[in-house]
Amino acid sequence: MIFLTALPLFWIMIAASRGGHWGAWMPSSISAFEGTCVSIPCRFDFPDELRPAVVHGVWYFNSPYPKNYPPVVFKSRTQVVHESFQGRSRLLGDLGLRNCTLLLSNLSPELGGKYYFRGDLGGYNQYTFSEHSILDIINTPNIVVPLEVVAGTEVEVSCMVPDNCPELRPELSWLGHDGLGEPAVLGRLREDEGTWVQVSLLHFVPTREANGHRLGCQASFPNTTLQFEGYASLDVKYPPVIVEMNSSVEAIEGSHVSLLCGADSNPPPLLTWMRDGTVLQEAVTESLFLELDEVTPREDGVYASQLP
Ligand SMILES: *[C@@H]1O[C@H](CO)[C@@H](O)[C@H](O)[C@H]1NC(C)=O
Ligand SMILES: *[C@@H]1O[C@H](CO)[C@@H](O)[C@H](O)[C@H]1NC(C)=O
Ligand SMILES: *[C@@H]1O[C@H](CO)[C@@H](O)[C@H](O)[C@H]1NC(C)=O
């Protein structure tokens, strides 16, 4: 089951904020694959009475305070940015329209962190918004398997990847799903905070044999060599069946007899040896021996092994 609300809360908050205070709206977290790009949607606002001639802005990395000299990601006044952002950052939004949407390309792990926007309307009218986006740079698709997978009951396994790079769109495919059913690509879905995900679903009825099966999902980016794989192991719960047991045993008086019961289940079964309703031995195990020393005719009877 996938929970994505259709209601774009993000934009409702913007609509409600019109009329001017200092404020910014951006997703609190956003993710993207290494080597691709990310567009961080951003809007900001300021008191209407300021009426700036030009609106400038700065994006900072990891700290909101200019006095800490945080790495400059983007600066509209000078175009001078920190070396790790050179040629990698571009403002997509129009600051005059209070749109601070930022594009970061050629993502590498060290660009993961917090991004802060600062509005600069000239003079003292500068303000770094406390709202910020945490960028997570990933390299594996996220496979979501339900907490409980039971043999014979249909499950929905989903593969979800971020789709926030306008230039590179992921394509999803499943690995090791032969015989498990046909995937259904749900497509691009919008999440609460204005970020996007690409989702593919796999519906199937697991069998006991599918326990331990490795299921993979691959995200590839057409016309590039970028390719990412993620795997999940299926933990299929199934009830016990007895796979091995002595049916009838003849024993010589005074001899040693061992009886075996073997069963298969996930999780492992509780096995019990009983005679005439009396529990002789029990354990959580896949095979349980009952050892009878020096049998006499008194031990004659029906020995039963029981599953929970
Ligand atoms: C902000 O700018 C981006 C990039 O041009 C655009 O895609 C987005 O729709 C704009 N947002 C709003 C609320 O106008
Ligand atoms: C990949 O490249 C081909 C040929 O240049 C082009 O026709 C196609 O649209 C490209 N696909 C994508 C997803 O960019
Ligand atoms: C019961 O079966 C087990 C496993 O096959 C075997 O080891 C054991 O000797 C058998 N017991 C008797 C009394 O035949």
Distance between the termini: 31 Å
Strand order of the largest sheet: 2-10-9-5-6
**Tell me about the biggest sheet?**
5 strands, mixed
Helix percent reads under 10%
Mean pLDDT score: 89
What is the count of helical runs? 1
The CATH homologous superfamily of the largest domain is called Immunoglobulins
Number of domains: 3
Ligand roster? 2-acetamido-2-deoxy-beta-D-glucopyranose
Secondary-structure element string = HEEEEEEEEEEEEEEEEEEEEEEEE
Work out the number of β strands.
Answer: 24
- Under CATH at level 1, the class of the largest domain stands as Mainly Beta
What Rg do the Cα atoms give?
31 Å
Structural class: mainly beta
The CATH topology of the largest domain turns out to be Immunoglobulin-like
Give the DSSP E fraction (strand runs of 2 or more residues): over 45%
Membrane topology: Single-pass type I membrane protein
Pfam family, one: C2-set_2
Keywords: Cell adhesion, Disulfide bond, Lectin, Membrane, Signal, Transmembrane, Transmembrane helix
InterPro entries: CD80_C2-set, Ig-like_dom, Ig-like_dom_sf, Ig-like_fold, Ig_sub, Ig_sub2, SIGLEC
Question: How do the helices and strands line up, and which of them pair or pack?
Answer:
Elements (H helix, E strand, L loop, with lengths): L8 H9 L5 E3 L3 E5 L4 E3 L2 E3 L10 E6 L10 E4 L13 E3 L10 E3 L8 E8 L5 E13 L3 E3 L4 E2 L4 E8 L8 E5 L7 E8 L5 E9 L9 E7 L6 E7 L2 E10 L11 E10 L3 E6 L2 E7 L2 E6 L10 E4 L2
Parallel strand pairs: 2-10, 12-19
Antiparallel strand pairs: 1-4, 3-8, 5-6, 5-9, 7-8, 9-10, 11-13, 13-16, 14-17, 15-16, 17-18, 19-20, 20-23, 21-22, 21-24
This protein binds 2-acetamido-2-deoxy-beta-D-glucopyranose (3 copies).
The site of one 2-acetamido-2-deoxy-beta-D-glucopyranose has 5 residues, from loops.
